[in-house]
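Re-run requested by the PI after the first attempt was lost when the workstation crashed. Everything re-entered from the original request form. Ligand of interest: NDP.
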Amino acid sequence: MILLFVSDVDSAGDWRRELAKHVPDLELRVWPELGDPTEIEAALVWRPPPGLLDRLPNLRIVFSLGAGVDHIFADPSLPPGVPIVRLVDPYMTTAMSEYVQLQVLRLHRRDPVYRAQQQARIWRQWPQPNAAERRVGVLGLGVLGSDAALKLKVLGFDLAGWSRTERKLPGVACFHGADGLAALLERTDILVCLLPLTPATEGILDAALFARLPQGAALVNCARGRHLVEADLLAALDSGRLAAAVLDVFREEPLPPEHPFWRHERILLTPHVAAATYPPTAARAVAEGLRRFADGRPLLNRVDRSERY
Ligand code: NDP
Ligand code: OXD
């Protein structure tokens, strides 16, 4: 089978080497070297240029190089009916949970306040509640959100989570749907966003949502930049409605040098590194998808095109 690799990140060499370990007879073509487009049956993509997939008349399956697939749906001419498989890799799940635990602990232990105090050489000790008194809410209880929630629970936090359909997780108060969101927010001191970016979740982190959180709550967004209304976050931080925010993802990446987030005292930011795709482990998941597809077996982690995740 011929697989087209498309990415704006220079990782084709790593993918060629890792996929060859699992699918030795695979022919990999690397965009923009298409060859004869009619020969390409599968594509492995990260932010494909709009219109590219529509130029492949015999394309039968698309694999995402990331867990999120919003970069694929961003193409208005995405061929209809072609199955899309997203990346689910235990390495990535572990990495995301590490990130979430780290950032929730930083917020819980008032790290942004102590960083600012250090800058100003202020010696001031604040009362420290224990984890059981800190209510954490996770938006999105999928592969990443549920693992993060369960690991935060192990750290002793008081956990709740929110999903579209009803979910059950041991020791986690689970809410779902529009009504469930209000109930989750009012009992959340630290809110973690691990939602997919879809028309239903774009801009969800806005002033109306922040107004439902207790005064002085904090935010961790490690899903997508477009979940957040940036001006609303700045206003919520300035008014004290939110005490701090940790951001890994941004509307514009790289974050432009003049962006106010860089210098904001109560924003901690990282450059979209919460859970990067790691070819040595991710290639196993893609290889399994290719085998299933070739054998006509049901695909794992197939995207629901109507829900766009
Ligand atoms: P999943 O598809 O496994 O889970 C998505 C979760 O969100 C599900 O629980 C789903 O509900 C819920 N959800 C979706 N739409 C809604 C809605 N409208 N209302 C309420 N809940 C909703 O995704 P993953 O956990 O694998 O990944 C989540 C996101 O994390 C990715 O889409 C990606 O954008 C981001 N990501 C970021 C990375 C980074 O480095 N910063 C790395 C990897 C991923 P239900 O359970 O009912 O379906
Ligand atoms: C992903 C990401 O979606 O890295 O996998 O953001």
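Saved to the shared folder this time. The mean pLDDT is 97.
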